[in-house]
Amino acid sequence: MPAKVVEHAPAKVNLALHVTGRRDDGYHLLDTLVVFTEVGDTVSVAAAEQDSFTIQGPFAGLLDDEADNLVLRARDLLRSKHGDLPPVAISLEKNLPVASGIGGGSSDAAATLRALMRLWGIELSADTLAAAALRLGADLPMCLYARTLVARGIGEEIEPVEGIPPLHMVLANPGVAVPTPAIFRALASRENPPLPTLPGPQALSAWLTDTRNDLEVPAQTLAPEIGEVLSALTANGAALARMSGSGATCFGLFASRDEAKVAASAIAVLHPSWYVTATRTIERARADAT
């Protein structure tokens, strides 16, 4: 058993998100193309004499008083499945904005599950773990896979996607809270067409222009600042600017890492209070053990 396990909790970006219906229990049905990025949070777990949980990083202050953190719920979920597991020290480096549409909390919980399974020597199939983790949130299954995928249903139907090349992007968040339930209530239509058939890698840009994020318009009615972010990304050369998830984080796609870095720097100068970073999509989340 390793003494310490470190897991990357990458940001989740919805390149396209179509709302296709609503179940009788009120959960909305989605069809979404998801990628994960180099930027993200970091979860570290280590054997300890007693349980502990610490948070650091630029957005740690927003979680200090959150007793029911998803990281701790993930730990307790594994214990509920496997009985008396030993104490563990968990550390979360919180680099991503909180509740911002890029899966921060869900990705943290997923990274915690992956790390603790390695630390404690637990073996579960990806499907079994995803089904159990769904109780923590609809984003958990896709964040457990942490690779390019299409998610359907409420997020639990996962289809890995191959062949999409790395994408250079800028993530920008204006620092406003956007309540997800209110966005779904503001939807003009809940019965929309699903994503079109995925294209070959060379046709991705054209395909994306034929898709959308159905939550973007209602989100802007609640937080007009999202429109400012989209305009800033477009004005600085983004080939496509779109909101991710339920917002308020938006992404802009760029032709190269250098172009993304130049755009991020320019936007950060004009909007110093925003979260702005250049990044690139990844094949899958990285892990480390010592």
TrEMBL record:
It comes from Neoaquamicrobium sediminum. The gene is ispE. Catalyzes the phosphorylation of the position 2 hydroxy group of 4-diphosphocytidyl-2C-methyl-D-erythritol. GO terms for molecular function: 4-(cytidine 5'-diphospho)-2-C-methyl-D-erythritol kinase activity. Coiled coil: none annotated. Residues 215-267 form the GHMP kinase C-terminal domain. This is 4-diphosphocytidyl-2-C-methyl-D-erythritol kinase. Residues 69-146 form the GHMP kinase N-terminal domain. Keywords: ATP-binding, Isoprene biosynthesis, Kinase, Nucleotide-binding, Transferase. The active site is at K12, D139. ATP binds at P97, V98, A99, S100, G101, I102, G103, G104, G105, S106, S107.
